[in-house]
Each structure stands twice: as C-alpha cells, then as structure tokens.
Amino acid sequence: MNRRLVTILLAAFVVAALCSVLVYRLVGMRIAAVKPQPSTRVVAAATDIKIGTVLSAPDLTTVQIMGTVPKTAILDAKNAIGRGVTSSLYAGEPILEDRLAPVGSGGGLAATIKDGMRAIAVRVDQVVGVAGFVTPGMHVDVLISGVPPTNGGGGGGGNNNTQVRTVLQNIEVLSAGTDIQKDAEGKPLQVQVVNLLVTPEQAQVMALASNETRIQLVLRNPLDTKVASVQGTAMTNLFLDQNAPASKPKLTGRVAPAKPKPETFTVTVINGSTKTESQFAAPGGKQ
C-alpha cells in the first residue's frame, strides 16, 4: 500500500478522535451545568367532582408537578378530606385551597357562599328565569314591576300606574332549583327557584320586592361588570308616540274680524309756486 495514503488515513483518524473528545467534553459540561428541576407530589382529583361535594379519600389521588408548585396547592390529603368543593374539579387536576370551602363548613350550597355574602331564593317561572337559561355561575340583573304605593300606604291608579325599575345589577347565580349543577347533558334545568348571591343589604331589597312586586331576571354577559345608570319607566310611557310631529298651538274662543281701512282721496292745491296736498275721507267713510 502506498505509504502516503496510509499517512493521510492515520492523520484523518487522529483528527476525528480529537474532535470526538472535544464534542464529548462540551456536551458533558452543558449537561452538568443544567440543574435538574425538582418535582413535588400534590393532591389532585381522582375523578370529576361536582361543586358542593364533600371530599373523601376515594375522590383524591396524587400527581407529580415539575418545577414551581402553586402556593395554595395541597400536599397532604388529610387537609382536603371532609371539605366541600366550591367549584367543579376534573380528573387529574391539582386541588388548590381556594377551590375548597373552609374546614368545618361542610358541603352543598352553603359551602359556596363567600364571606360577608348571603344566598336568597327567588321564585321564578319559565319566563322570569330567562326560559331556563339561568345556570349557576351566570350573572343577572333584577327588575321589579308594580304600582308604587301612594302616601296613604296603598297602590293607586290601577295598572295605568305600573312602573318597572332595575333594583340590582350584576348578581351572581348560585344555584337553579334544588340542584347547583346542570343536568347530565350539561344543559340548563327548568326550575322554579333561583338562588342569588347578594349582600345583606341587597337581601333586604329582594325580600321586600318578592312580597310587593313581580320580579324579572335579565341575563347579562359575565364579562360585563359595569353598573349602568338606568331610569325606571311607567306603563303610560309605552303608549307615547315618540315620532309624532310637534302640534301647532290652536286658538280658542271667538276671533274678532280685522277692521277695514277707511277709503280716502287726495286734493292738490297749486298757488303760484306753492303746492299743497290734503287728504279727505271718501263719502260714507270715517276718517
């Protein structure tokens, strides 16, 4: 074999070996520089859990989380057992403290009531309940309609004096009927009672309105949290012709005829360079 060819092959092998060693060391340094991320095992839902459910051991499992763990994550299942769920959980989802009711508060609707708030039941029908589309978690406005009381303490004027007012806005729906969930197909339920989340002051307004007036719920977009300035309206306003042109004022009483102007004639007198004119009433006229 040609000695020159052998020398070239040996040199190529040496260069390849040096490159391999260099690459190996660089990759090793990069791997050593990367610190392994710590993992933490947290409590999670073993199955889909509905709102209001009181957690038990079969409802819970654990999952491994890489990196930073949420501050409100539950690490020990003992801290979750016996507590009510305030919002629905799904299988494999880590359970956080703010998704559970406080210890000792139990489950059901009462566990979903926030501190300082109250739940008040409003009797509705298919129309008042927005045709059954009022479901837990949605927001509504509360309208009342009725005849305002007079100074004597009772309503007056009959249905012609009926008025409607918006008394509450952006009120959260806690439950619909006796269930705080949707039906098996995820559709809203036809219910007769809707529970609303209100403040103690708003609860007094609702209690008075439910006894003296008719209540109507108006569905709103949950992302729309603005409180609008709404003026009430009355039954008589519905029959006003908004597009009617302004009527001209009409005169009443007897209109006196205009007086005719008296007929006159002019007489011109020329006296030398002097010229004078005089007007006289026509015969039969009055000057």
UniProtKB/TrEMBL annotation:
InterPro entries from the UniProt entry: Pilus_assmbl_Flp-typ_CpaB (IPR017592), RcpC_dom (IPR031571), SAF (IPR013974)
Signal peptide, first to last residue: none
Domain of life: Bacteria
Organism: Telmatobacter sp. DSM 110680
Positions of the SAF domain: 40-101
Protein's name in the database: Flp pilus assembly protein CpaB
